[in-house]
User: What shape does this take?
Amino acid sequence: MTYKYQSQAVAIPYFIAAIGLFVAQILFGLILGLQYVWGDFLFPEIPFNVARMVHTNTLIVWLLMGFMGAAYYLVPEETETELHLPWLATLMFWVFLVAAALTVAGYLLVPYATLAEFTGNALLPTMGREFLEQPTITKLGIVVVALAFLFNIGMTILKGRKTVITLVLLMGLTGLAVFFLFAFFNPTNLVMDKFWWWWVVHLWVEGVWELILGSILAFVLIKVTGVDREIIEKWLYLIIAMALITGIVGTGHHYYWIGTPEYWQWWGSIFSALEPLPFFMMTVFAFNMVNKRRRNHPNKAATLWALGTAVMAFLGAGVWGFLHTLAPVNYYTHGTQITAAHGHMAFYGAYVMINLTIISYAIPILRGREANGDRAQVIEMWAFWLMTVSIVFITLFLTGAGILQVYLQRFSDTPLSFLVVQDKIALFYWLRLIAGVTFLGGLCVYIWSFFIPGEKRAADMPAMEAQGSERGAVEAAAG
Amino acid sequence: MQTQVIAESDRYPPGDLAIWVFILAELAAFAAFFGSYAYTRMQHVALFNHYQLTLDKTAALINTFALITSSYFVVRGVAAIRENDSQGCVRWLMAALVMGGLFLIVKSQEYAHHIDEGITLSTNKFYMFYLSLTFFHFMHVIMGMVILAAVAVKARRGRYSAEQYVGVETGASYWHMVDLVWLILFPLVYVMR
Amino acid sequence: MKKRTVLGIRTCTWIWLIMMGLTLVTYTIGQAGLGGLSASLTVLVIALLKGQMVGDYFMGLKRLRGFWRWPVSLWLFLPGGLISVAFTLVG
Assistant: This one.
């Protein structure tokens, strides 16, 4: 057994389910991509709004699955103690998975209004809001799962060694649970509704999730670089402080045009303009740590994912976020394809990649080897490049579509209507669809890499030449 | 060996390099705020000039004195630990904290006065900037005081010495930044018209 | 850790007193109700000078060589420049 604590193995089903839902998410993404250019594709079986709901909801669920798996894997190792209740973790996995499956089935099989009626939405209305479409009972199920999860993780941390990484992770996970409670707050005033809605949506992805991201990244970097914990923890502190300062007040960048007071335009602009900084620090941090590494971990693929996360999160969340975050710019770009471009790259770069990083690091160990063999790793790196390059192209095409859309529909002296503009930018949607298919190809290669046998240990690697051969492998994968 | 060490120490600012990355980020935020203030004022000169007169310049003077003096005390605190004088270091840091506390009290009085008059962020553009800027800075004073207090506690336990005082310098650098920002904020918001 | 070249306490004490004096000048200008471009820019220059003093002496950047000698000075240019442009344009 290569992992030290038996209970770390409860992470396995979480990771597998995460990847399964990832596949579903991408398939529905492709359906959507096609519906952009072929409006009645699969209509009336899977209308656009339903496909979109499945695409975004499966994304969120699989990221949460991944975070939970990551926590179950790294917390025992960090605290140097077994998980408090491994059976509870397994039980909650099934509860979560079944709830997710039933919810998606509900989306697909019955009309949304029927689903709402059927699940008793009238008793406590929470449905019908973007990303929070889940029936109220599913939301309650999520709360139960989250509480059981927090209890399990919290007790383990209390019992064992306390590290900065687990502390930050616990803060992030607690915040995740607390802010989700705002999903149950559904004022009838539309302005108030939107105002609090962002407390779930924004404060998750631009607040507490960044703590989870930071701690997982720090954990993997400690493992693969062997750099002193003290140095990594110091950076982690600074990054999360910066992320919270800019991210929390940065919520204001959603309050420009929804009927909130004017000062939000200033607060939102100034603070969210600084949101790229923690991501930039993360990039500097990751590359510095890898350069200063004191060991050559045989799992090169995990290192690549970790570095990729830092770079892509900075580009997607930082740069593409900054593009349209200033109020005067957002006045024109609000809710256009620019937002979609940012959304795709930010979610992939920050949260998809950090999940794939911890999966890449943990799965070989959970399967009883320090790292996969060379061939499996090279194929995994191919998957890395295929998916990453595809998402870059998806982002670029959507940015192109967005710029045109903003100009034709909102900026020009003779603005055109929405649907006329959609027709004019269809070429970009076709190109985006091609990039999306390539992404699915990358995902298939990624899954294939799990089925390639062979293993590699640190001992197999000649100490001096390790660096050179690793460069070779990375470059080979880079093509 | 020795020359190398000295050269190295003259290349990097006092304290942990990481705090300097943080300080630069903070300074960038304040610069954005100052620039926004000046830009908005351009469009509403009369309004800004009018409401600026409602501010209490004497309170701001006391606060500027308090921050400059506390910064100076922190300098003395760093000098003390460099001489291996832990107790002296603690005393200077405590004095700096007292000055920081004075700042918080005076500023709170100002806020209380504004609240009495029913002024909020939405009253007008001038108050929006005045309240946002000073409150953002106010939070930094609190943050800086927490850091200084933590350093003082550690110094009191004898964790620093003439050989090892990076922590003191780290806290000191952050505190000077809080001072530095106020030095621009004070004339910009209270005096320039 | 090796001791660095350190600026004397006496210098810092002087700097402290000078900064207190400069603050008083700013305050007097404010209390006198002086406005307009020349008064504003005077006050701004005083503020930038004080900022430079904090960077040079209190933070101790004056003795540094290389990159870190400059961030605070360069930073002062940023708000300093933006503010003086905005005030000049208004006149």
Notes: The mean pLDDT of chain B is 93. The helical segments of chain B are 2-9, 17-43, 45-52, 57-82, 86-116, 125-156, 166-191. Chain B is about 80% helix and 0% strand.
